[in-house]
Structures are given as C-alpha cells and as structure tokens.
Design goal:
Blueprint lengths: L1 H7 L7 E4 L4 E3 L2 E3 L1 E6 L7 E8 L7 H11 L4 E5 L10 H12 L4 H21 L6 E5 L2 H7 L1 H11 L3 E3 L11 H7 L3 E3 L2
Parallel strand pairs: 5-6, 6-7, 7-8, 8-9
Antiparallel strand pairs: 1-4, 2-3, 4-5
Helix pairs in contact: 2-4, 4-6, 5-6
C-alpha cells in the first residue's frame, strides 16, 4: 500500500510535505487526503496525519478506513463531519460531504464514529509498543453552533477527541470555543 510506503520514509529537516492521494484505493474504501506534518518531538521526525469524511462512502466503511490509516502508520486522524456548505474544501471533499449527508449522516453519528475509533486505538495501544493514534474532529461553525458550543465540546471530550479544527471560526470571533475546549482538555487548532 502506498500509505505504508510513505510512512516508512523519514523526511527529517523538511518543514512539511503534502501527498494528496485522492481516489487511492484502500480495500473497499477510498482514502481522500493524506498530509505529512513535521513536529519538534522525536528529533523532528515527520509524522503522518490522515483525513477522512465521516459517513463516506457509507457508515461503517469510515471506521474501517480510520483503522486502516492508523495501522498503516498515521499518528493523527482528522475526521471531518460533513457539512452542506464546506467552503474551505475542494470539489472532492465537497462531493464526499454531499454523499455522506445524502446517506443520512448526523453529528451524533460522527461522535459515535469518533468514540469507536478512539476506543479501538486505545485497545491497540495496550497491545503494541507504539503511541495511540490521536483523533481531531474537523467541523464547520454551523454544526458547532447548531449543537451548541458547550455540548459540542463535551461530546467531543466524551468521544476521546484530542483536538478540534473549525476553519471558519477565528480566534477572537470564536464564541469562546478555545477556552471551553481547553477546560475539557481539547486543543483547538487555529486555521
């Protein structure tokens, strides 16, 4: 699998390298986007962050894709909650969001998926000698506001989320999501 090949490469010294693998087959599902990110931890070792749209191509397949990404070496997985107007995304992700919503995706389904994934990662961590994969939820502000910021953050914390990415919610105009999330041990990644 190309994902495993990419993970085996060490790219120390690189600021970042993006590998967009749109349409790459991984079993029954398609991997939508992969991003290499560098960190200051582990001697500037490059780490893999993978992205998927919850509920795409259908409920259940998203879980298998998340597990496959972690098994192939992803240390971070961004699970995007589909939104009807994903303005920060390109046409492939927009289509994936549209299909997930057509299949009946709900925010509750998204948090159920995240909870299943984080439980599986925690169980695997106890069986292997490597850190558990961390899950970030990417959502647009409309979904956060519709659920209520406090409830959204509490649901995220209960599901085991490490961080939130809300691309259309800037610091200073964020309705206190940064502070609320911090109180629950969740990072908010500014975009």
């Amino acid at each position: 699998c190309l994902l495993s090949h990419l993970n085996s490469k060490r790219l120390a010294g690189q600021d970042s390298l993006k590998a967009n693998l749109i349409g790459h087959d991984h079993g029954r599902c398609k991997i939508r986007k992969l991003v290499w990110i560098s960190t200051v931890e582990n001697n500037n070792e490059i780490r893999l962050m993978a992205h998927l749209v919850a509920g795409f191509p259908k409920s259940g397949d998203d879980f298998e894709v998340a597990i496959g990404m972690a098994d192939a070496g992803a240390e971070f997985i961004e699970i995007q909650f589909p939104y009807s107007d994903p303005a920060a995304d390109g046409p492939v992700i927009q289509e994936a969001c549209s299909r997930a919503l057509s299949n009946g995706f709900t925010v509750a389904d998204g948090f159920d998926l995240v909870a299943r994934v984080t439980r599986e990662f925690a169980a695997k961590k106890s069986k292997v000698n490597r850190p558990s994969c961390r899950v970030f939820v990417m959502s647009y502000a409309g979904l956060v506001f519709a659920r209520g910021i406090d409830r959204f953050v509490v649901d995220a914390a209960n599901a085991g989320v490490a961080g939130l990415i809300v691309p259309d919610l800037m610091r200073g105009y964020d309705e206190n999501i940064f502070e609320i999330a911090k109180d629950h041990g969740i990072a908010v990644v500014p975009v």
